[in-house]
Amino acid sequence: MLSKISISDTIDFERLTAMLKIQNLTATVDDGNKTIIKDLSLTVPAGEVHAIMGPNGAGKSTLSYVLTGRDGYDVTDGSVTLDGEDLLEMEPEERAAAGLFLSFQYPLEIPGVPTLTFLRTAMNAQRKARGEDEVSAPDFMKRAREIAKSLKIAPEMLRRPLNVGFSGGEKKRMEIFQMMMLEPSFLVMDETDSGLDVDALRIVADGVNALRAPDRGMLIITHYQRLLDYIVPDQVHVLAGGKIAASGEADFAKTLEKEGYDAYV
Predict the structure, then answer these.
(1) What is the pLDDT of residues 46-94, one digit of tens each?
(2) Which are the contacts of 88, defined by CB distance < 8 A and separation ≥ 6?
(3) Residues 6 or more apart in contact with residue 21 via CB below 8 angstroms
(4) Distance CA 143, CA 140 (A)
(5) Helix, strand, or coil (residue 79)
(6) Taking the complete model, does pTM exceed 0.90, yes or no?
(7) Which among 50, 68, 105, 231 could bridge 190 via Cys, Cβ 3.0 to 4.6 Å?
(8) CATH code where residue 61 lies
(9) How far apart are CA 260 and CA 48, in angstroms?
(10) Structural domain boundaries enclosing 77
């Protein structure tokens, strides 16, 4: 016989299943002179992939920067929690250690720092922050070789300085490589499809889909529906005017591609 579920039980269930929960978020740039995000609310449950689409200047990249704690983006109202923890109270490195990962629209180049050195340092810093043992060099290299092969990343690329001299597609594949190595609990992908040809898009999408898991959430920010043919989302949201203006299931992206965003601006 089923027992009755109280209101408090429902609230607790929502808290436990809402991996990322944004409530009434408002954020500014230019030392508070320009408001980009305005009273935005969004919930991404564990195990789900949500996509955000919208016109230029809607605040899509700003949202990703606010979530990851980039300097110059100030929250003036609202809250953000990740697994029930206050994300806005954490420093950027603490957010990373808590499992948050941002795939940049324009990945940074770091001259003089080999890719594998950078990644193993980052991985062990996160493990230390979580109270875990460092990964050994042999285990790290074994995993790096396996993942690089699956993404068709040549071994010599891993020995080069991070992203230096890489093409746009190579940089995006390197972002997915880092993502698969670090195994974060929540992924934010900002324009991951930017600059990718069809073959590179398939490889990147395969890497992202391999990370789908019941205990991992994803937020994909994109202008175009084509990425969502390869990474099928559970929900699609329109970001316009700094807030979520509409939401729907995966096919909603095709409607937006066809009709545009005029109805929501």
Answers:
(1) 999 999 999 888 899 999 999 999 999 999 999 999 999 999 999 999 9
(2) 75, 79, 80
(3) 15, 42, 43, 44, 79, 80, 81
(4) 5
(5) strand
(6) no
(7) 105
(8) 3.40.50.300
(9) 25
(10) 14-259
In a domain, 265, yes or no: no
What is the C-alpha separation between 70 and 262, in angstroms, rounded? 30
Residue 5 belongs to a domain: no
Per-residue DSSP letter, 196: -
**Domain annotation covers residue 9:** no
The alpha carbon of 49 is separated from its chain's Cα centroid by a whole number of angstroms, namely 10
Structure tokens at 89: 């109270």
Asked whether 206 and 237 are in contact (CB, 8 A), the reply is no
Residue identified by tokens 């398939």 is: 202
Does residue 24 sit within a domain? Answer: yes
Q: Which of 95, 82, 61 is nearest to 221 (CA)?
A: 61
DSSP conformation class of 58: S
Tell me the pLDDT of the chain averaged across its residues: 88
Cα angle for residues 234, 238, 244 (degrees, 5° grid):
100
CA–CA distance, 87 with 43 (Å, rounded to integer)? 14
Residue type, 248: G
Residue type, position 60, single letter: K
User: Per DSSP, which regions of the chain are E strands?
Assistant: 18-29, 34-45, 49-53, 74-82, 85-86, 100-103, 110-114, 161-162, 186-190, 217-221, 235-240, 243-248
Percent of the chain with pLDDT over 70: 93
User: What is the SS3 string spanning 200-250?
Assistant: HHHHHHHHHHHCCCCCCEEEEECCCCCHHHHCCCCEEEEEECCEEEEEECC
In the chain, the number of structural domains is 1
